[in-house]
Amino acid sequence: MEIVRNLGRSVDFRNGRVAAWIAVGYAAVMLIVAASVGVTLLVTEDSFAGVWLFAITFPLSIVVLLAPIPGGLVTFVALVAAGLLQAWILWRVLRGPRRSSGAAGVGEERGG
């Protein structure tokens, strides 16, 4: 995933490190919720655990639910994918503009 690959290069952006930590944190929480929802749905027949996955992936979860896809596992996978997409969008929006080439801090090596 681009977020993880670019964590080291996040200093190239004005808010790069903070944005990367927020996006990775969101993705981690979303994956933990998805795993717990998946286990809960496998163990019990009737559960409202899926509401948590819907809530944490909002607003992209609305798009998934309105899409003409079959329910069950396909919807679960689509919600997880929507959450990961949302983490990537968070990183892209929050990182800010790219710093100019002379803006690297003292002692920082610019990678290219």
Automatic annotation (TrEMBL):
Keywords assigned: Membrane, Transmembrane, Transmembrane helix
InterPro entries: DUF7942
The keyword Transmembrane helix is annotated on this UniProt entry: yes
Transmembrane annotation, as ranges: 20-43, 50-67, 73-91
Pfam families named among the record's database cross-references: DUF7942 (PF25637)
Protein's UniProt name: Uncharacterized protein
Organism (species): Actinomadura fulvescens
